[in-house]
């Protein structure tokens, strides 16, 4: 039986003695494409940081590719695109290719120096994102959308098996947003990369992902969009109209207005 | 005075050799410090150096040997205060800095004042650097520069985005500890060049000058090093020729370089 990419068991996270996350349990398998959604302050980013080992949970267990997070060392299997593109220092003097190269460090032994084949990989990923011409440009001089693409390149240059993307499309124009989701879909379908996309845009994420993990300090829903559309609990939680809109955008063939809430 | 005659003086040769190495060292570390908005750690550790020099003079020991371990402990103290005591970096630096000054003043008072000795450390006296101090400066400078070369990509990644660096498996805690320890050694070595009061200038000026001109990280490191070496060498030559204080002259030349870089950038941008 294949090992789960990620397994979270009974996770609690407390800040100043109040629960930010409580009783979180779920698992992600190879090839899953998940939208992690929830309102502001629902604990999405805290959950992601705990999964990445950046924050230590109060209690509970997280395993990545079967290894406990504390003992996990194969970070080259994990790609991470952080949220804080807006906080990127415009004076930072690194070039596009220097930033993308940072994504290759997890695979390297000491001393972590770049080789010719590393530079070829960087060129390939920049080509994929239409950024090759800008490889020697200082990253601080690029537009918000171009900077976001540089960070996408850094997250995928290592061919990760598990990709975590936090609020990815805020700085992108509609054309580039569609291109971004095309790339995500191709990684998911062709390379079976498990992807988690964190967003507060519950209404639109269903257009792209196959599963939904709705968190509001605890798990409200985790499953396929088909189950989401048929769930009575979700109807009670969101209201019929909101549920209908989300399902309609995910797949217009799913009929949420039929009142068939029989299988949740 | 002829330039060839100038370089015949042993004390000037020693000053130029040690100054060149320490200049490269300070500027290289300074780039990381400035970009991590941690540049005032130089000031904080310099003040801790003041306390440790006062202790060394009281104990009649070499300030270099006493200061290196004490300032290294202080540097880790600043890091731990920032990470674990929920203090902002500048507040943690302030705590260690004021403790260093207070300790130095108390020790100086207990000893009945150190006068000229302590004064030479406060404002630098590279022209009086001994042969042993030159060798120690060269050895430690080479060690610190090699560490930066070996860990260059990790340091760059942490400087750019610490969370992502950690998420890519880089042991950020160890690298940060190593980094502040290297900074501590650098600060202690620099006290002879520009003096305790002006150490942070040698860490900050070459970096901010290079940031005006260079467009890639490697170019910033090289420009900063070049700027530091030229400023130290010309500072020594000018101060000796015009009978000016060496540390202050080096800092003023660095300031001129910074203004030049700033003007260049404005002309190019506009």
Short key terms for the protein model shown above:
A: alpha/beta; four-stranded antiparallel sheet; B: 270 residues; mainly alpha; 81% helix
Uncertain spans of chain A: 252-264
Biggest chain pair interface? A-B, 33 and 27 residues
What's the N-to-C terminus distance of chain B? 43 Å
Average pLDDT figure of chain A: 84
Contiguous runs where pLDDT drops below 50 for at least 5 residues of chain B: none
User: What's the multimeric state?
Assistant: heterodimer
Model description:
The complex is a heterodimer of chains A (about 260) and B (about 270). With about 260 residues, chain A is an alpha/beta fold. Chain A is about 35% helix and about 25% strand. In chain A, helix 8 (about 230-240) crosses helix 9. The two termini of chain A are about 25 Å apart. With about 270 residues, chain B is mainly α. Chain B is built from 13 helices and no strands. The model of chain B has no long low-confidence stretch (mean pLDDT about 90). Chain B is about 80% helix and about 0% strand. Chain B is globular.
């Amino acid at each position: 039986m294949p090992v789960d990419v990620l397994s979270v068991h009974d996770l609690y996270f407390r800040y100043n003695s109040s629960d930010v996350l409580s009783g979180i349990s779920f698992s992600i398998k190879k090839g899953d494409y998940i939208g992690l959604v929830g309102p502001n302050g629902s604990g999405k980013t805290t959950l992601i940081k705990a999964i990445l080992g950046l924050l230590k949970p109060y209690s509970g267990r997280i395993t990545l590719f079967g290894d406990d997070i504390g003992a996990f060392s194969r970070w080259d299997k994990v790609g991470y695109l952080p949220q804080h593109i807006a906080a990127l220092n415009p004076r930072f003097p690194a070039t596009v290719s220097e930033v993308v190269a940072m994504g290759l460090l997890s695979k390297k032994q000491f001393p972590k120096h770049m080789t010719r084949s590393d530079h070829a990989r960087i060129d390939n990923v920049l080509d994929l994102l239409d950024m090759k011409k800008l490889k020697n440009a200082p990253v601080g001089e690029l537009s918000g959308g171009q900077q976001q693409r540089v960070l996408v390149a850094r997250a995928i240059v290592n061919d990760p098996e598990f990709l975590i993307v936090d609020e990815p499309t805020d700085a992108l124009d509609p054309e580039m947003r569609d291109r971004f989701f095309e790339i995500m879909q191709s990684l998911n379908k062709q390379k079976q990369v498990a992807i988690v996309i964190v967003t507060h845009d519950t209404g639109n994420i269903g257009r792209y992902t196959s599963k939904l993990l709705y968190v509001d300090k605890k798990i409200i829903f985790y499953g396929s969009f088909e189950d989401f559309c048929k769930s009575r609990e979700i109807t009670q939680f969101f209201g019929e109209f909101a549920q209908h809109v989300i399902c309609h955008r995910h797949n217009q063939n799913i009929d949420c207005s039929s009142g068939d809430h029989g299988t949740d | 005075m002829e330039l060839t005659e100038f370089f015949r003086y042993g004390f000037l040769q020693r000053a130029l050799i040690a100054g060149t190495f320490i200049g490269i060292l300070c500027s290289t570390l300074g780039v990381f410090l400035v970009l991590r908005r941690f540049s005032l750690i130089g000031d904080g550790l310099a003040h801790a150096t003041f306390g440790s020099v006062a202790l060394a003079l009281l104990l009649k020991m070499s300030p270099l040997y006493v200061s290196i371990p004490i300032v290294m402990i202080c540097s880790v103290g600043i890091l731990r205060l920032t990470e674990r005591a929920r203090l902002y970096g500048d507040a943690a630096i302030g705590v260690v800095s004021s403790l260093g000054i207070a300790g130095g003043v108390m020790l100086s008072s207990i000893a009945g004042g150190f006068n000229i000795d302590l004064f030479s450390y406060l404002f630098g006296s590279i022209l009086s650097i001994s042969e042993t101090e030159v060798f120690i400066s060269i050895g430690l400078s080479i060690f610190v520069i090699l560490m930066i070369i070996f860990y260059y990509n990790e340091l760059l990644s942490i400087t750019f985005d610490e969370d992502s660096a950690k998420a890519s498996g880089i042991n950020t805690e160890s690298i940060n500890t190593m980094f502040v320890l290297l900074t501590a050694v650098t600060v202690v070595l620099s006290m002879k060049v520009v003096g305790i009061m002006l150490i942070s200038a040698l860490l900050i000026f070459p970096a901010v000058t290079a940031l005006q001109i260079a467009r890639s990280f490697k170019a910033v490191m090289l420009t900063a090093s070049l700027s530091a070496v030229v400023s130290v060498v010309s500072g020594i030559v000018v101060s000796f020729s015009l009978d000016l204080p060496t540390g202050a002259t080096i800092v003023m030349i660095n300031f001129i370089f910074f203004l030049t870089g700033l003007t260049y950038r404005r002309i190019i941008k506009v």
